[in-house]
Amino acid sequence: MLDVRNLAVFQDFLFLLASRVGQLANAESLSSDLGVSAPTIRAWISALCESNLLFLLRGWTRNAVRQVVKTPKIYFTDTGLACWLARLGDTDRVEGGPLRGGLYENFVIADLLKRSLNRVSQDRFWFYRDSKGHEVDLVLERDGRLFPVEIKSSATFSTSFVSGIRHFRAAFPEMSEPGHVFFNGEVRAGETYDGVELVNPVRECPFYRPIRFAAGMTMA
Considering the domain 107-220 in this protein, what is its CATH number? Predict the structure, then answer.
């Protein structure tokens, strides 16, 4: 698809993408690091997205034009592939490494996206970041309503997890739902903090409940 002439550089490109999972897909920065032109970097990213190896998350804003031009974040459709490309060969290197948070975020968002596609839903996925650094990892848009979601790999809940959601709700009160914090710890069903629902996404998915069929079968 790409007619890559220097496979070693392309492999380095894949390594850098995997090492920056959940970060902005900055073609200029990758171009500088690899010595490859920014248009080539953009073409490579586009081809990987067309191949369903990557997907991009754009920044949400009221302005539809700015939604198009804002630099997106980059994620892998298969978090295990991202680990392999980042040269993380065992669980300990993931658990104790600097990519843990980004990989956990990738896993959660990719799982939500796949559930949405399985249901042929019209949900749209964004992230939020304003000029002052306020940020929400994921904003799920459904029927004109916005669900802010903070994603943390921590096994322990911290009240600081809801700070970005608080700002988002205050900035867009007429559109925003209370929000969710997805984290990797113990939580009781329906538990909330400041109106924000706390969820372990491995055990529960509040947006896409299992579909139950007549014979008792379920689909995640």
Answer: 3.40.1350
